[in-house]
Amino acid sequence: MRAVRYHEHGDADVLQVDDVERPTPDRDEILVEIRAASVNRVDVLFRAGQYGDLPLPTIPGGDGAGFVEEVGADVEEFEPGDRVFLSGMDRADGGTFAEYAAVPAEKVAHLPGDVSWTVGAAIGNVGATAWTALEELAGIQAGDRVLIHGGSGGVGHLAVQIAAHSGAEVIATAGTDAARDRLRDLGATTVLDYDSDALADEILTATDGAGVDTVLDHRLEEYLSLDLEVVAEGGQIISTMGHIPETNGRPFYNKEVSIRPLKMDNHPVRRPVLDRLARLLRQDALTAVVAETYSFDTAARAHQEILAGGYVGKLVVTP
Ligand SMILES: NC(=O)c1ccc[n+]([C@@H]2O[C@H](COP(=O)([O-])OP(=O)(O)OC[C@H]3O[C@@H](n4cnc5c(N)ncnc54)[C@H](OP(=O)(O)O)[C@@H]3O)[C@@H](O)[C@H]2O)c1
C-alpha cells in the first residue's frame, strides 16, 4: 500500500510517499481502508522530533475516515463495508496517512451515511478534544457563558458548535473578519478579535460584566491573566496545553476558579465520544469545516499550512 512516512525528524520535506506492507489487524483491531485523514498540530511536533519518541520510519496521522476492510477475531461491533471514522491512533503502530490502517476498535465509530470522508476525518481528534473538554471536564450547561479562544481552529470551531448546541452563550475569538463571520454562522453569540488590546473589556461587556463560566484555552502562557480577569466567580479554565504559567495563586483563590488541564492521551477510549459526535452529525447540529484537501504527494504542504494558520477549520489529506 502507499503511505506517507518520514525516516528522520525534520522539516515538512522529510515527508515522502513509500510503498509499505499493508498492516494486519490484531484480534481487537479493525483494518480501515482510509479515504481521508486530518492534519493535527501534534503530527507536526512528532515529525519535528519535538514531542514523543516514535520508532522511525513513522507514518503520521492520528485520525481518519474510511471503509472497514477487515475485523479482528474479537471485534463484534463492525463488519467489512461499514463506514467509520476514528480518533486517537497510537502512532507507534503507524498512522492514518496510509491507504490502510489497523486501528483498535475502541477508537472507531460508525460514520453517518451522508457525512463525507473529509468531514468525518476532520472531526476525529479535534471533535473528541472539544467534546471531552466542554462536556466531560467542564460539564457545560444551557445558559452558561463559554469563552473559546482561537474559535477558528480545529478544536475551536467544533467547540463553538458543541457549546452552542448545549444551549451555552458562546464568545469566541478569531483573527480575521472572515473567520469571525464563519464562527457566527456556527453558533457563536459574540465574536471578537484575538488581537484586540481591549479583549478583556470586550468579553466583560459581552457578559454585562458578569464574566464567563468556562474558558477553553489553548495558549495559557498568553491568556492566563486575561482568563482570570474575565472568568466569573466559581468559574473554570480548561487548558489543552501542558504548561501552566506561574502565578501567585491569589486570583484563583479570590474567585474560587479552577484550572483543568486536558491531555487526550489520557482518554484512549474514543468510541463513546465519537458516537456522541455522530449523533450531532445526524442532527445537523455539527459539522467540520474542511479548509483544504491535499493528496499524499502534497502532504508536506499541509504540514506547513497548519503552522501558517489563517483559515477556519481543518486541513485534510486523501490518498
Ligand atoms: N491537550 C491535548 O490533548 C490537545 C488535543 C488537541 C489539541 N491540542 C492543542 O490545542 C491547540 C489547538 O489545537 P487545534 O487543533 O485547534 O489547532 P489549530 O487548528 O492549528 O488552531 C489553532 C488556532 O489558534 C488560533 N490562534 C493563533 N494565534 C492566536 C492568538 N494569539 N490568540 C488566540 N488564538 C490564536 C489560530 O488562528 P489563526 O488561524 O488566525 O492563526 C487557529 O485558529 C494546539 O496547540 C494543539 O496542539 C491539545
UniProtKB/TrEMBL annotation:
Entry keyword annotation includes NADP: yes
Keywords: NADP
Domain Enoyl reductase (ER) span(s) in chain numbering: 10-317
Domain of life: Archaea
An example molecular function term from Gene Ontology annotations: anion binding
Pfam family, one: ADH_N
Biological processes annotated in GO: small molecule metabolic process
UniProt key word NAD: no
Record-linked PANTHER family: QUINONE OXIDOREDUCTASE
Protein name: Zinc-binding alcohol dehydrogenase family protein
The species this protein was found in: Halobellus rubicundus
Lineage: Archaea, Methanobacteriati, Methanobacteriota, Stenosarchaea group, Halobacteria
